[in-house]
Structure formats: structure tokens, C-alpha cells
Amino acid sequence: MVDHVQPRTAATPTAVQDRQRVRQPYPNFRVIVLDDDVNTFQHVVECLVRHIPAMQPDRAWELAHRIDGEGSAVVWRGPQEQAELYHQLLSAEGLTMAPLQPE
Hints:
Number of helices: 4
Structural class: alpha+beta
Radius of gyration: 23 Å
Largest sheet: 4 strands, antiparallel
Number of strands: 4
């Protein structure tokens, strides 16, 4: 008895494109705090240090000054789910937030 073996076919362009799509990096999102006339520098700094991983007070003060001087600052970049969490936490603290923005 002889087994019938199917000949191998070359990868189609669609299969190659599908593999390339899988390899694209997951998009990052930016968490942006906006300037307002409500929150103090101290409150902004405390919120950033409390909710943004590895945020140091010196960096939080720099960001607070940028928010005040330029009207906004990106306080975190990363995967969408984490960005949504940090956006929600900072918003719940009363900070004025821009909508999440993909990079």
C-alpha cells in the first residue's frame, strides 16, 4: 500500500501578510494631564507618585510644572489597558485628563 502525499505549496502572499500583522507591536497610548485652575501642584504630584508606577517625586514635580507652563504633559506611555487604568485613577483623584491618545 502506498501513502498518497500531498505536494507542498508555497506560502501565499495572504499568509505572509497575516504573519506580518501578528508581529506588529501592540500600540502604546499616552496618558495626558491637562492644566486647570482647580488642582494644586502638591495634589498633582501626590497623585502621580501614588498611581503611576516608578514615578519619583522629582519627576512628578517636573511634570506638574510642565502641565502648568505648557497646558499639558504626557505622564505615562504604554499598553492600552494600563493606560486606561492610570487615566481612570488620575481622573478619580480630580485631575483634568485629556482623552487617551494612541502613539
